[in-house]
Fold each of these.
Amino acid sequence: GGHRDLHSLHTRRSSDLTGYNLDHPVFDSLNVIAEWDFINDDSTTKNEDGDPLGQHNHGTSTFSVLGGYAPGFLVGPAFKADFLLAKTEILDKEIQIEEDNYVSALEWGELLGADIASSSLGYTEWYTWEDMDGNTAVTTIAVDIAVSLGMVCVTSAGNENLVDWGHIVAPADADGVISVGAVNNTGLIASFSSRGPSFDGRIKPEVCARGVLTASASGNISYGYGSGTSLATPLVAGAAAVLLSARPTWTPMMVREALTKTASQSDSSNNNYGYGIIDVWEAINIDESTLLSRVNISPNPLILKINETKKVNIKGYNSNGEEMSIQPTWSTTGGTI
């Protein structure tokens, strides 16, 4: 089934997905530029008549982890960002229109200039494990398009390790996304955190952050602790906002690579931790010339089949920012290259 929140975050703007209770004092000083409820087609993202009880609770919690500011109680890494808040997920249903709402939210955020999208949700209900290939799920495709347009996309890997599904969820399988696993306060992977790889064999998740007993807002005025990859994701999205504030010219794939190259297991990646726990200070100070990711994901994923002739033109940039051509290297697997 689905997991409950999409945030879209920006060094200036951000959004979540089940809704937000902005009356909580943790949000008193934040700059929310715009809100939109894609379920009810209005500008109210907090609970309103007809919403299920508790509709906005998950979004409130994850948004507080991302950008809340209440010194002595909770300070999120992106508390100085500007935010866009999108409400797309119906709490008591799991239906395909929620994916369409997610895509609409990404489009809305991109139109308004969002730099980062943070989503704590996922979809499995109408998919199979074979669909987690980076090219199939509606939201997966949308995320890669958003990345190609310049938006860093961060999403939860899922909480599926101990249940029948047992894998990452869409859109965590996207090629350009930063999918996030959950660790505890000692850095041990959470038992529930979804493991990789993607169906086509890519390392997943990309990185990890604390998602066990993570401090967050709860209720109307209180604070508590929550667990799930939903809570780890806004920490990574907030770190990406800090990184972009320091390196505003970086592309989404450069941000992604900087975080993975400086994470705790960058030299020994696996499908439990990905590249490990992020280190935003190391990512900020990485030698930019070592970053190869100056190529954006194609918005139209391409599969080349044997005996078919395809020409691939990829534009890239060298460490001096000069345009260069890139010759891709292909490997053959199962009749495709």
Amino acid sequence: MKRLPAFLLIALLVYPASAGGAGFQRTQVPDPDGKPIEVGIWYPSNSPVPHEPNTPFRQPLALAGEIRGTALPMVLLSHGDGGWMGGHADTALALAEAGYIAVALTHPGNNYQDNDAPPSRWVLDRPRHIKSVIDHMLSGWQERERIDGTRIGIFGFSAGGYTALVAAGGVPDIGRAIAHCANYPGELVCRTGMVADLAAADIENLPASDWQHDSRIGAAVIAA
């Protein structure tokens, strides 16, 4: 018998075995300290999928289709500054087809329709949004018993990368960002006033407990 390559053997051990179509649900999650959070949920499903796209993401999905599998790992997806939950729909679909529950959110106050929150606000709001969505998925979602609560990960892009790092336990060092802008004022976050807003709000001196870490997150993928 031929031996499996090491990377293939690892992949078979780590990734869920199921593969197939994807179902989709769209909902809103209450946030005790802010506006409701719009959420899209992709998940493995055996329900029929149409031949033509039937979603704003141009994907054919089984809308409210029956979920397939149990003890499914869950991955949250956090978009960049001014994005929305559909910004990484391709990644969410790939995860669902591989046997994951993929949960993408639109961050209130920092999305393409509502981008009024200043950086000093959304740097604190975004990690809290993640925590609220995890709470909902594990205690309020009708299919919550299908989730393996010990296997929760997060993917973040740009401002979502920041969100993922903080949600997973990181504490921002705003002082280093201020020093960086003093040396490189042409940097995007410097010339647009983002770091200046953080400095003026004294975000640098917040206690670590204010950053809304979530110990349930066991893995993170960060993209910039």
Amino acid sequence: MSLFWCIIIYGDRMENKLKRIVNILKDNGKTISTMESCTGGAIVNAITNVPGASTVLNFSAITYSNDFKVKMGVDKNIIDKYTVYSKETARGMAKAISDFALSSYGIGITGKLGKRDPKNKCGNDNQVFMCIYDKGIDKYIDFDIFVDRDNRRDDKKEVLEEVVDRLLSYLEK
């Protein structure tokens, strides 16, 4: 997808924020990886729309099932104790992907986008948990939002905007 399509889908402001994120990471010799569930790769897709993203993006995974979250390194006990839809699971995802990909930063996203999950009945239907993990200082930046748009694409866009804003704010400190 070209930057032209990035502008159409996300807008000029989002494109500029994504460029700044990639440039900050490049300038500081840092890397990033994502483990996404309900967003289906929306975050990594947006990052890869920026020219030069390949110099900062190590790896990403879309892990819809609990089994694959565990296979990627999330502790099964965390999912069992706190549920797959929790801050703790988002943390586990962020750290596991950072460790797996040897990345400076990991992003973990889990939640429900308006649909009941018959395999995981607990948790709010429109709550998304996100975490940015900074491996260099072993720090977790946790946040969550409630989304309730007319369709999943708009929900994903809202989550993307929140993650990009939080990540950029953290990197610019």
